[in-house]
Design brief:
With 173 residues, this protein is an alpha/beta fold. It has one domain: Tetrahydropterin Synthase, Chain A. It is built from five helices and seven strands. A seven-stranded mixed β-sheet has the order 6-5-2-1-3-4-7, with helices on both faces. Helix 2 links the parallel strand 3 and strand 4. It is elongated, with a radius of gyration of 17 Å. The C terminus is likely disordered. It binds zinc ion. Zinc ion (ZN) binds next to strand 2.
Length: 173
């Protein structure tokens, strides 16, 4: 199986609710995400995916949505205040752990129909969380992803389910 990995760096802030460690306090990370795409066959260019395609799509989305953004659980009491102050804020249905952020990026890649096999988020130099495709059935989607009619770079992706970005679309329940 072939694989390519794109590395993207971004900064984010977060805190964890219902958690007793020091990550319950607001703090930030210089994160590094590794996006791994895999395929059993190469396209006519001899590629799994052009790195430039990943840059144009996923990196652009990370730059505009997650970079320099506060990631909070949807019911975090800080969320309404940040929304009023028009701070960059993304609300997740779960605690914004490295695992949850890795899955968020993985799901976005799936929506782009990229043959993503794993997303690894390095929260620090020593701590990394991974979300990966877990079933053999995913290999079928890897094959079908090579259909040129499904070029993800030719269209804008839909918003990520459960994700509300920016003050206008933020929602707190
Ligand atoms: Zn943290």
């Amino acid at each position: 199986m072939y694989a390519v990995t794109k590395v993207i760096r971004f900064c984010y802030g977060h805190r964890l609710l219902d958690y007793r460690g020091k990550c319950r306090y607001l703090h930030g990370h210089n994160g590094k995400v590794e996006i791994e795409l895999g395929s059993l066959v190469l396209d006519r260019r001899g590629m799994v995916r052009d790195f430039e395609e990943i840059k144009r799509t996923v990196q652009r989305w990370i730059d505009t949505t997650l970079d320099h953004t506060m990631l909070l659980r949807r019911d975090d009491p800080l969320a309404p205040m940040l929304r009023r102050r028009r701070e960059r804020c993304v609300l997740l249905d779960t605690n914004p752990t490295a695992e949850a952020i890795a899955k968020l990026i993985f799901d976005y890649c799936v929506r782009l129909r990229f043959p993503v096999t794993a997303v690894r988020l390095w929260e620090t130099e020593h701590s990394v969380a991974t979300y990966r495709a877990s079933t053999p059935a995913s290999f079928d989607s890897l094959r079908s992803s090579l259909d040129p009619a499904r070029d993800p770079s030719s269209r804008d992706p839909e918003p990520v389910e459960g994700l509300r970005t920016g003050p206008e679309r933020s929602r707190v329940t």
